[in-house]
Design goal:
OB fold (Dihydrolipoamide Acetyltransferase, E2P)
């Protein structure tokens, strides 16, 4: 039975190498654990059930850990580089309407963070980016 679990582990490891996500590796690890457990547990049915339980548990725990770490990740992109910087309103930003703001010689669509009117030539601070629009407030 140990040879069978080794083959299963290798198959899942090869399949994992062909996919961009970390999902099948946990089944490979589950099969490796079953190599050890099959020494003590002779029932194939119980081994298969344990393989499923161990593999799915590893997958769920690992996914939760990865997602939790990813929540704190700050994405460093060119877009995020302008957050907290200043810009100048080129076209009035009216309540519930989009205006135009120039930041570092680039024009951006922008809306007011607190839904207030911000008139042309007013200096604003970029608070965040939602889609392709800047969320700004008067400086």
């Amino acid at each position: 039975m140990k040879l069978l679990w080794l083959i299963v582990a290798i198959i899942f490891a090869i399949a994992e190498a062909m996919t961009p996500s970390l999902t099948l590796i946990w089944f490979s690890i589950g099969a490796l654990i079953l190599i050890f457990l099959s020494t003590f547990i002779k029932s194939i049915l119980i081994q298969v059930i344990l393989f499923g339980i161990i593999s799915v548990t590893l997958l769920i725990v690992a996914t939760k850990i990865i997602v939790k770490k990813d929540e704190n990740h700050q994405y460093d992109t060119n877009l995020q580089a302008i957050v907290k910087k200043s810009g100048v309103v080129r076209k009035d930003i009216l309540p519930n309407e989009t205006g135009i703001v120039v930041v570092e010689n680039e024009e951006w669509s922008a809306i007011s963070a607190n839904n207030e009117a911000i008139l042309e030539n007013t200096e604003v601070e970029i608070l965040k980016i939602e889609g392709v629009k800047l969320i700004v407030s008067k400086k």
